[in-house]
Amino acid sequence: MPRFSRDGSAAIFISDRVDSRDELWEQSLADGAPSADARRVTRHETGDVVHPAVSPDGRWIAYYRVVEGQRDIYVVSREGVSPAQFTTDPASDIQPGWSRDGSKLAFTSDRDGRLHIWVGPIANGRPAGPARQLTRGPAREMAPEWSPDDAWIAYTSEPTASNGDVWISRSDGSGTPRRVTTGAGALRVRWLEPDQMMVSGSWGAARLSVRLVDPLSGTVTTPVPPIVFGDDPEMCDFDVDTARGRVVFCRVTRTGNIWKLNGRF
Fold first, then answer.
1. pLDDT over 70 at 219, yes or no
2. pLDDT (tens digit per residue) in 121-138
3. Alpha-carbon distances of 5 from 2, 12, 27, 57, 263, rounded to whole Å
4. Which of 45, 77, 155, 243 has the greatest number of C-beta atoms within 10 Å?
5. Class assignment of domain 134-265?
6. What number is the average pLDDT over the span 144-148?
């Protein structure tokens, strides 16, 4: 579950290299190349850390933590100081995503009995008010991603490698959600520009790969060079550094390493 830091100087990811528990780590990408050493960011005594998301100002990392089956969202400073619990609901709260202005976190929750998208305000790494439900579709709705102007939130509906598509909803909850892709087997989405997304999915094939998608027309194209993740649907996560034309993703190897690809898109 790799992410770029906002300035592109580091990759932030999950690893179980110490104590066999998943924690947040950061590795420098000075001059675009990985450094020899990684720095551990979180040091929880129990549970596992999942799905990091870096704030727009680069100061905070949101993630969710699994402790004895309970899933809640936490926020920690980039230095790993004073992690704070953002959600306390007994439901499962997972997959946080920052608004581009840093004032809100969208996340996935089953508080109403099914996985839908919720939005909560945040300030200085702490909750700043109650969360509200954004989507109410009949399918599971997951992995929210904000548009560059914060007007829309994209997400995957019924996300599986064989049955899942990207939908978008107005972030204020007005209007009707709109389907963007058809038959994508969509699992994750990154919104690059107002008229361009990157979506990981099966696209009717056996292996997961990434496509460029126009959220207005639904037009799908293949990036150059092609980006193929493999055949494990759990390795669907990625991030994009639009300023430098880079993609970071996880590819299944014998040691489960993180890869970085310089590309044109």
1. yes
2. 999 999 999 999 999 999
3. 10, 7, 10, 9, 18
4. 155
5. mainly beta
6. 97
